[in-house]
Amino acid sequence: MSTLSQVYTQHPLKVHYIIPLDFDSVVTVPDSHAWPISDGFESNDWLSIPTIDLKDPDAVKLIALLSSNYQKLKALRSPGGATGYGLARISSFFNKFMWHEGFTIMGSPLDHAKELWPNDYQKFWQVHALPCTRNDDIMEDGQKKMEELATTLMHKILEYLAVSEEEMKWLGSPEVASTALQLNSYPLCPDPNRAMGLAPHTDTSLFTILHQRISGLQIFKEGVGWGLVHPITGALVVNVGDLLHILSNARFPSVLHRVVMKETKQRFSVAFFYSPPVDFNLAPLGLSSGQIPLYHSVSVAEYVGRKAKDLNKALASIRI
Ligand SMILES: O=C(O)CCC(=O)C(=O)O
Ligand SMILES: [Fe+2]
């Protein structure tokens, strides 16, 4: 079976080079990175986002907060191959560059980190402040914790959707899920209102678990427009992605999000993308009688291909 990394390699980034601007060396925003002033760039409005405590016995009910009325996030990116440092994967769909550099990891973060920082690799999780214990296996432990959290969340979502776990056999072996970790950096910007941290997109994943400490993340709400998602100490943001949108027959809509340059500090975020194995076929499930499926069945690999071809039309392309 192929891996997520192999599937992405089949759909490389279509830009001439993948190296971001040397942000430290610029004092003005170059034309290549100057975006037209957009609605909401200057807005300091916060959107109210529901918070769920997964230990709460009522967590399954609270999962309803993730569905239609409230929206969360999604995304995807990487350089020419599937992994490593470079421009956001979505860069090829926009004619301006973003005020962003990123590092994508698929597979073992420990192997990536050892390659990059042979002497310092254990600091990686500490720097990025993800849940972990302090032992020699800190990297694998961090990855495992994220996988456990994602699996718990997935079980609760399936329960809420009344989807039998029989339909998701892969969930029984968490290590077969396709996961990717994206480290994002948004350097200080001399003219924040002309720059775009990360352009509007929805994530391809089932959902993305996002860690942010500094504001800048905005989501788009129909009838409201763009609003900031307040960082909450000790909480992670869950962005619903396109694959869950399909699986839930749009009961959990994937949400358009972007990053704007808000604070006079460099911003970092860590996104953990969680998807089924690449050969898994997704179709709307848990429909009650009379409910009509809105989407054709599609494999994860095929959907990644559709998204690589046309970022914003992938969902519409499988609409029944
Ligand atoms: O930096 C953020 O808050 C959002 C990152 C994101 O949307 C992504 O990595 O897909
Ligand atoms: Fe995203």
Automatic annotation (TrEMBL):
Signal peptide: none annotated. PROSITE patterns: FE2OG_OXY. Pfam families: 2OG-FeII_Oxy. The keyword Cell inner membrane does not apply. Keywords: Iron, Metal-binding, Oxidoreductase. GO terms for molecular function: metal ion binding; oxidoreductase activity. InterPro entries: IPNS-like_FE2OG_OXY, IPNS-like_sf, Iron_ascorbate_oxido_reductase, Oxoglu/Fe-dep_dioxygenase_dom. Residues 176-276 form the Fe2OG dioxygenase domain. Belongs to the iron/ascorbate-dependent oxidoreductase family. This is Fe2OG dioxygenase domain-containing protein. It comes from Hevea brasiliensis (Para rubber tree).
